[in-house]
Design goal:
Blueprint: H1 9-14, H2 20-23, H3 31-37, H4 43-50, H5 54-63, H6 69-81
Helix pairs in contact: 3-5, 4-5, 4-6
């Protein structure tokens, strides 16, 4: 799949393809944002999909401990696999 650019953005969007790569350069997700999303997302399932320890992620969210760069990248990648993204 080729990268989204200004020439193919509309066409890709209309075809139902992922176009987030056109808008997102650095996506950062925080434990605070995950706590907010816990009302509508199953964070245990997200942790498993991201290959993270569920209890560790839950503890970090509860304490407000920052995510490591690797944890952030894994969570963002898991969300993108399901064509989901979050914005602050």
């Amino acid at each position: 799949m080729s990268a989204t650019n200004s020439d193919n953005l509309e066409e890709r969007f209309d075809a139902g393809e992922d176009v987030l790569d056109y808008f997102v350069t650095d996506v950062v997700i925080t434990t605070h944002r995950l706590a907010e999303l816990s009302k509508i997302l199953n964070l245990s399932a997200l942790a498993r999909e991201a290959g993270l320890n569920v209890q560790t992620l839950q503890a970090k969210i509860r304490r407000g401990t920052p995510l490591s760069g690797d944890e952030t990248a894994r969570i963002v990648a898991a969300l993108k696999r399901f064509h989901l993204a979050t914005v602050a």
